[in-house]
Structure formats: C-alpha cells, structure tokens
C-alpha cells in the first residue's frame, strides 16, 4: 500500500498572494503600533504573527 500524498495545486499561488499581503500590511501594522503609543517592534511582531496564523488558511473558492 502506497502512502497517499495530498495534492496542493494552490500552494504556489497562495504563497505569492500572502507575500504581497505581507508587504502591504507590514508598514500598516508598524504605523498603527506607533500611533497607538507602543514601540514599532510590536507592530512588526504583530504583522508577522498575523501572517503566520492566517497564511496556512485555505483559500476561499466561490
């Protein structure tokens, strides 16, 4: 019996899309952190953690 490997045809497109969203959201996260009165590093961490949490989420197909 051969192991079944899942087919993920959308991984390449999802990675490219998440990279674009990361590059757009990162300055926004840092700006919101500075405007809130916390250090800019916390905005950077928030942007990275948010991307890591939502990145693996499956894309919506409507």
UniProtKB/TrEMBL annotation:
Topological type in the membrane: Multi-pass membrane protein
Please list the residue ranges annotated as the SLC26A/SulP transporter domain.
12-54
Any matching Pfam family: Sulfate_transp
Q: Tell me the keywords, alphabetical order.
A: Membrane, Transmembrane, Transmembrane helix
State the GO CC annotations: membrane
Chief site of localization = membrane
- Does Ion transport appear among the keywords? no
Where in or outside the cell?
Answer: Membrane
Q: What is this protein called?
A: SLC26A/SulP transporter domain-containing protein
Q: Which organism is it from?
A: Streptomyces brasiliensis
């Amino acid at each position: 019996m051969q192991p079944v490997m899942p087919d993920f045809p959308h991984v390449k497109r999802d990675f490219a899309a998440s990279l674009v969203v990361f590059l757009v959201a990162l300055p926004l996260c840092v700006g919101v952190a500075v405007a809130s009165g916390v250090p800019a590093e916390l905005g950077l961490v928030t942007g990275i953690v948010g991307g890591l949490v939502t990145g693996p989420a499956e894309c919506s197909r409507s």
